[in-house]
Specification:
Strand order of the largest sheet: 1-2-3-4-6-9
Distance between the termini: 31 Å
CATH topology of the largest domain: 2-enoyl-CoA Hydratase, Chain A, domain 1
CATH superfamily of the largest domain: 2-enoyl-CoA Hydratase, Chain A, domain 1
CATH class of the largest domain: Alpha Beta
Radius of gyration: 19 Å
Structural class: alpha/beta
Number of strands: 9
Shape: globular
Number of domains: 2
Largest sheet: 6 strands, mixed
CATH architecture of the largest domain: Alpha-Beta Complex
Order of helices and strands: EEHEHHEEHEEHHEHEHHHH
Length: about 260
């Protein structure tokens, strides 16, 4: 790949945006490779958890706007946006748990790439910015959906209207991230979380992710109906039976995703 590094170990796929000279700004090739990789992960049973991060000192500074940016060559911006939007949608629908490992800058589409992951672990030096308005642009890459759900509508408007840089400590206070850790501990902490997720029951985690993602759009009654349908799928798996056996034997379960 030209713009990504992809590593697999112990069921964990680590996707590293690999354009450190431009703070991992995403060009058209990066969108394409990321979309292809997410599609491959979605159907590979050996891929159990995903970590997304950036090479070097930064996570991602957003879209690479040089030479027309991601809209270059498009017949109309609407077509370009429709194509780009496949990436955050694929990330959202991915039936595997995802972790954003953020150090340095996460701005614009880069910030929303992190927010699109299921969990966010940030280094103390991480900085987040919904920079769009300062560039004369409106918010995109799923930010208008994720941001108010994470921190509330008025806080979301504050970050989107002003485009101010938010420190890791403030991101933690606002509820943008799950954890803030010293930079020297970031890699080990995320590896630990990712490997725990990879050892989990894949079907149960996929059902849980879907239920939580769809929860705000449902009434209580609808949520309970969806939970019942999800539980019928999960309880019929070999992993559910393995969990009971492991509990009775006082040992750790070994889940296979079946």
């Amino acid at each position: 790949m030209e713009t990504l590094q992809v590593e697999r170990y112990n069921g964990v796929v680590t996707i590293t945006l690999d354009r450190p000279k431009v703070k991992n700004a995403m060009n058209r090739r990066c969108w394409e490779e990321l979309l292809d990789e997410l599609a491959a992960i979605a159907v590979d049973p050996d891929d159990r958890a995903v970590v997304i991060t950036g090479a070097g000192a930064d996570f991602c500074s957003g879209a690479d706007l040089s030479d027309g940016g991601p809209f270059a060559g498009a017949r109309h911006m609407a077509f370009a946006m429709q194509w780009i939007n496949q990436v955050p949608l694929a990330l959202h629908r991915l039936p595997k748990p995802t972790i954003a490992k953020v150090r340095g800058v996460a701005a614009g589409a880069g910030a929303n790439l992190a927010l699109g992951c299921d969990l966010i672990v940030a280094s103390e030096n991480a900085r987040f910015a919904e920079i769009f308005a300062k560039r004369g642009l409106s918010i995109d890459f799923g930010g208008s959906w994720a941001l108010p759900r994470l921190i509330g509508l008025h806080r979301a408007k504050e970050l989107a209207f002003f485009g101010d840089v938010v420190s890791a400590a403030d991101a933690d206070r606002l509820g943008l991230v799950n954890r803030v850790v010293p930079d020297a501990e970031l890699d080990d902490f995320v590896t630990g979380w990712a490997e725990r997720l990879a050892r989990g029951a894949p079907v149960a985690l996929a059902q849980t992710k879907r239920l939580l993602n769809e929860s705000i759009q449902r009434s209580m009654a609808e949520a309970l109906d969806a939970e019942g349908a999800g539980q019928m799928i999960a309880v019929g798996t070999k992993d559910a039976k393995e969990a009971v056996k492991a509990f009775l034997a006082k040992r750790e379960p070994s889940f296979e995703g079946r």
